[in-house]
Amino acid sequence: MVDQAQIDALRSVPVPPQDLFIDGARTASGRCQNRSIVTPIDGTILTTITEADAGDVDRAVKAARRAFDSGIWSRAAPAERKKVLHRIADLIEAHQLELAVLGVRDNGTEIGMALRAEPGSAAGTFRYYAEAIDKVYGEIAPTAENVLGLVHREPVGVVAAIVPWNFPLMIGAWKIAPALAAGNSVVLKPAEIASLSLLRLAELCTEAGLPDGVLNVVTGEGAVAGEALAMHMDVDVLAFTGSGAVGRKLLEYSARSNLKRVYLELGGKSPNIVFADAADLDQAAKVSAFGIFRNSGQVCVAGSRLLVQRSVHDVLVEKIAEIAAGMIVGDPLSLTTQAGAISSAAQLEKTLGYAAQAADQGARLVTGGSRILEETGGFYMQPTIFDGVTPDMTLAREEVFGPVLGVMTFEDEDEAVRLANSTVYGLASAIWTSNLSTAHRMIRAVRAGVVHVNTYGGPDITVPLGGVKQSGNGHDKSLHALDKYTDLKTAWIQL
Ligand code: NAD
């Protein structure tokens, strides 16, 4: 159990300038250009990261390919890889507080959530794939007697992983752990504003015995380092989590380079649908509030559209507004904080812009709407609710990725389904009802990768997470993630 004094002891520890991590060691960039990292906690400069250029990315990919071709990891027995992955999990747990605080200083997530969702979840992810990989078998095909058809599962080679600034360790581990378990080498590109904990993770992986070159981290600008990685001719698979706008570019880069396979985990505008027969409106209100306002709304699966049946609209909105207005927003390094900072000044500006636009377009502000704690120099915003949102409004259609909830009303199940499916996204959703048949019909009717029933959020690694429509393709988590990082090979043997 972590206490506040332990966190405070790490609050101001200087963070040295961060080099790239290539071939098992920290290394400077060829072009020696750095980027200042501003902490969203108070707007001061925390450290610098290295701006990798195409040459650095090429070095990282070459190191990954060398390691892969050497067979030191790719051809090691799965049971050997398992031992190293378990040691990585051990080290993540041993450095849990250091990793969580470093990440929070970088991106502003409240520490209570960061401890659970970042090192806590990353360690579990490494253990899950460590345990899975020596239990994945090939197949023998049901062929005629005079032939033998074997289906092997092989690592794909060099995997590029490009990840966003929210939950970098958790999302990074969702990609790194299954890719490594399957025997691949990885080149990871963290987001500009959330690189620190992933660079530290790479060091811990080496300490755990991961051979040099098997995991490399290139930091810096998406349009430079990210593009160079996505365009690289020797990357076999690109696994991405981030915005749809960048996802589109990655598909283009693949088409313009070597047709690498591209898996996209993109954004959402997830409907949280409350029927009048929900068993416990207090619970629905509480979970709905945290479903949108935790991490100040910077959660891909955030329930950012509340669809509520007319007869319970007033009472539910009032309950959620009360919870929102009472939430402790502020210092992300305080254990009592319920919603930390917005990750950057630009994201705060964008979020405030969405709020202003919602008001301009005729939505009714119920609570919040403004920047707070400006005197700290940090980037904070009140949990914000707009009622009377209609499907044509920007707030009903575009992902805000901030603490802004839009409320819409429906009369019956058909209208709930129509509204739920009325965006280009299909990531998450929730249904609140005490009617089992309604729940089952809605599970089938809502187009989304995840449907929660009478809850919101389920962090378990055993189930896949992925979207439909413009929320992406492919899945992180669960054994299904291994499909992204393995190729099937048929061996056809004449007997
Ligand atoms: P983003 O798309 O701006 O950036 C994501 C990553 O792409 C970063 O590392 C960035 O440097 C890189 N990048 C940017 N331009 C690039 C380019 N031209 N070529 C290659 N790489 C480039 O996203 P973000 O703002 O960091 O994260 C927020 C988005 O991520 C939201 O849309 C959110 O919904 C989504 N997200 C989705 C999931 C999921 O599981 N589906 C999880 C978390 C976040």
Automatic annotation (TrEMBL):
KW Protein biosynthesis (keyword) present: no
Keyword Oxidoreductase among UniProt keywords: yes
Keywords: Oxidation, Oxidoreductase
Pfam families: Aldedh
Domain Aldehyde dehydrogenase: 35-490
Highest rank taxon of the organism: Bacteria
Alphabetized GO MF terms: aldehyde dehydrogenase [NAD(P)+] activity
Catalytic center residues: E265
Similarity remark: Belongs to the aldehyde dehydrogenase family.
Record-linked PANTHER family: ALDEHYDE DEHYDROGENASE-RELATED (PTHR11699)
Protein name: Aldehyde dehydrogenase
Upper taxonomic lineage: Bacteria, Pseudomonadati, Pseudomonadota, Alphaproteobacteria, Hyphomicrobiales
